[in-house]
Amino acid sequence: MTKRERFLAFANFEPVDRVPRAAGFVEDLRETMTKSLGEDPLVHFDMDTGMGSGLRPPDGYEPPDYKEYHADMLDKEGFTIDVNGCGHVGHGFYHFTEYVSPLRNIDSFDEIEAYPFPSNAGWLDDTLRTAGREAHAAGNFSCVFVGHIYENAWQVRGYEPFLIDLMTQRDWAEFILDRFCENSLNVAVAAAKSGYDCIRTGDDVANQKAMMFQPDLWREVMKPRWAKVIAAARDIKPDIHVWYHSDGNIWDILDDLVEIGITILNPVQPECMDPVQVRKRMGGNLAFDGCIGTQTTFPFGTPETMKKTVLNLAQALDARNGGLTLSPTHILEPEVPPENIKAFFEACDDLIYDQN
To answer: Which of 111, 155, 291, 310 is the most exposed place for a label (fewest CB within 10 A)?
Structure first.
């Protein structure tokens, strides 16, 4: 099978020649693995990762200037501002940063309306289309991340202020959500028009035990926006797959995700939800990407427990008939032993099936 054929078989719950697999690394661990393997792990391990590209700003595009929202932080060493206007302060702990929300101290709705939200309206799809064609020519599947909605919204407003807005002045929260929903919709539509196999979406809406807010609130506020994005893509390409990410225990909204068109769930954290129980509940309506714990097996297991975990899970989920991509449930951090990573891919190599 080509990687594209394997992806489509996996996502459609059809027999695969092997279980798809992938992993990501923080830069420090990537360097450690390169020394251990003698080459970049992204090259060394035969991963099932797709290809694609997002929309491109037109020539001469000038992004919004957000410095006025961070006047008190500009002289702080290592302070940066991202494309949404959020400030970041690094504290020397790898890729983790402290968020500084530009709308954290506002007092009126007028200030939200005046904020220069980033917009991709009018952006070009030439690089997106080219990347999709190149993926298919290489036998790979085409996919593109269409953005966050809830996560971007709270990052711009501030985590606690945004949750308070949801309860006390929802029009504030919904205005921000809509700005990012529009951006996600534009990418999703462009991907569908270009024949992409998959769009990637997601918001972290749960903690280890439960949703971060009542499921009914998610259904009122977040669900219809993702439904709008997915429906717009499906109106153009009905068979486009939709990959959705949320860490934590999202058991309460699994049926809702399927209802709005999600076909692939990531990461299905085994510390939060039992993948076998999720499969029993959702059947062939929801494929999994993930399932190997980065809070447990990867950092604290042994090569032997890693191999046992991978093989047992593949058997329990009937992975030979699709529905499972094996991957760590988050990017791998520096404390993960290289031996466990090698064992993960060695175990995946054992999951090769006769197609005759």
So the answer is: 111
Whether the full predicted model's pTM is greater than 0.70, yes or no, is yes
End-to-end CA distance of the chain: 13
Cis peptide before 116 (omega within 30 of 0): no
Q: How far, in Å, are 47, 86, 115, 222, 224 from residue 180 at the CA level?
A: 31, 14, 13, 11, 13
Average pLDDT, the chain: 97
Q: Which two three-digit tokens encode residue 188?
A: 């999703």
Is residue 356 predicted with pLDDT exceeding 70? no
Distance CA 73, CA 28 (A): 28
**Are 199 and 161 spatial neighbours (Cβ–Cβ below 8 Å)?**
no
Strand positions, DSSP E, 146-274: 198-202, 241-245, 264-266
Domains and CATH numbers, the chain: 3-55+120-349 (3.20.20.210), 63-104 (no CATH)
pLDDT above 70 for 109: yes
